[in-house]
Design brief:
The protein has a single domain, classed as 3-Layer(aba) Sandwich (Rossmann fold), CATH 3.40.50.1820. It is 39% helix and 15% strand. The protein contains 12 helices and 8 strands. It has helices at residues 50-53, 81-94, 109-118, 159-164, 166-177, 184-194, 199-208, 214-223, 240-250, 264-267, 269-287, 296-302, and strands at 9-15, 18-25, 31-34, 58-62, 100-105, 123-129, 228-232, 253-256. It has an 8-stranded mixed sheet, sandwiched between helices. α2 crosses α3 (109-118) and α8 (214-223) runs parallel beside α9 (240-250).
C-alpha cells in the first residue's frame, strides 16, 4: 500500500485474548494517540492526519477491536468502554508510551475519557472530536425500527438493514457522514473500511458501547485532570448539546467547525490538522518553557494554506 509515510513500528498486542493491531510513527515527544472511533472504521480513518502530525509529534494509532487487523469478537460484552480503554493502555505499554495526548472521534470518546480520568498519569491532554458521550443521539430510535422502515438518511442506522445488506448500510450511512458535493473519495474510503467487518460485529460493538447516563458523563467531565478541548461539526450528526454541556462541565474550550459536516478530518484534513497541532503545541509549551510555540498564522501563510 502506498502511503505518504509508513510506520516505524507495527504489530499486535494482546488484551485478554483479543489481539489489537497498532502502528507507531516515531518523532520527538509528545506522543499523540489517535483512537479508533467506531467498528466500521479502523486506523486508516486518520490517514489525513498521520503524515502531517508525525512531522511534529510521535504518533500512535491502533485498529479498534472489530475491524482492520485486530480481532473481531462476536460478544457485545467484549466491546465495552472498559475494553477499549484497556486496549489503548496495552498499545501504549507495548510502545513504551508513558503519556500521550489523546484524540478521539465520536462514539468511542467515552473510552478516552475513562482513560484520562482513571489513569491521569497516562494522558497529557484530551481532544474530543464531536464526542458522542451519552445516549441523546438523533439516531437512537433506529434500534427500534421495523425491517421495512425507510433506509435513507438517519433511517439507514437500522439493525435490520445492517444484518440483511451490510454494503447497502455502508453506502447509505457514508452519505450521511459526507453530505457535501465532491465527497466521493471519502464515501469510497468509508465503504472500504466498513467492508472489512460485518453487520453482526458492528451491532455487537454498538450495543456493547453501553452509553452512560448524562449525569455520569458530566461528573467525569468535572473530574477531568488534564487540558481538554471539545469540537462540534456544526452538522446534525452528534448534536451540539453533547459537546456544549460537556465543555461547560469540564471548563474546556468548545470549537465549532461551522458547515464542514461530521467528518472534518477526512473531508477537510488541513482544518483538523492545524487544530490538533495547535492543541498539542500548547501542551508541549507548558511542559517545556524553552520550547518556541508554533505560530498558526505565519505557518499557514508560509505553507500556502491561506
Amino acid at each position: 500500500m502506498r502511503r505518504p509515510r509508513h510506520p516505524d513500528e507495527q504489530g499486535h498486542v494482546e488484551n485478554e485474548g483479543v489481539r489489537i493491531f497498532y502502528e507507531l510513527y516515531e518523532h520527538e515527544p509528545p506522543t499523540m494517540l489517535l483512537m479508533p472511533p467506531v467498528a466500521f472504521a479502523h486506523s486508516r480513518l486518520w490517514k489525513g492526519q498521520i503524515p502531517y502530525l508525525s512531522r511534529h509529534f510521535r504518533v500512535l494509532t491502533f485498529d479498534g477491536r472489530g475491524n482492520g487487523k485486530s480481532d473481531r469478537p462476536s460478544d457485545p460484552a467484549e466491546y465495552g468502554p472498559e475494553q477499549f480503554a484497556a486496549d489503548a493502555l496495552a498499545v501504549m505499554d507495548q510502545t513504551m508510551t508513558d503519556r500521550a495526548i489523546v484524540a478521539v472521534l465520536g462514539p468511542r470518546s467515552i473510552s478516552a475519557l475513562r482513560v484520562a480520568v482513571d489513569h491521569p498519569d497516562r494522558v497529557a491532554g484530551l481532544a474530543l472530536l464531536a464526542p458522542d458521550l451519552f445516549a441523546e443521539r438523533e439516531f437512537a430510535d433506529a434500534w427500534r425500527a421495523a425491517p421495512d422502515d425507510p433506509h435513507s438518511g438517519f433511517g439507514a442506522f437500522n439493525p435490520h438493514l445492517m444484518r440483511s445488506d451490510w454494503p447497502s448500510f455502508l453506502d447509505q450511512w457514508s452519505r450521511v457522514m459526507f453530505p457535501h458535493p465532491h465527497s466521493s473519495r471519502q464515501i469510497e474510503d468509508t465503504i472500504a473500511y466498513g467492508i472489512e467487518t460485518d453487520g453482526e460485529r458492528f451491532i455487537a460493538s454498538t450495543i456493547g458501547n453501553r452509553y452512560p447516563r448524562r449525569a455520569e458523563v458530566l461528573d467525569l467531565a468535572r473530574r477531568l485532570p488534564c487540558p481538554c478541548v471539545v469540537t462540534q461539526w456544526g452538522a446534525p450528526m452528534w448534536p451540539a448539546r453533547t459537546s456544549e454541556v460537556f465543555a461547560q462541565a469540564a471548563g474546556s474550550s468548545l470549537v465549532v467547525f461551522e458547515g464542514l459536516g461530521p467528518q472534518v478530518g477526512a473531508r477537510w484534513p488541513v482544518a483538523l490538522n492545524l487544530f490538533l497541532r495547535e492543541f498539542a503545541e500548547s501542551i508541549r509549551e507548558e511542559r517545556d518553557p524553552n520550547y518556541r510555540r508554533w505560530n498558526a498564522d505565519s505557518d499557514a501563510r508560509s505553507s500556502g494554506l491561506r
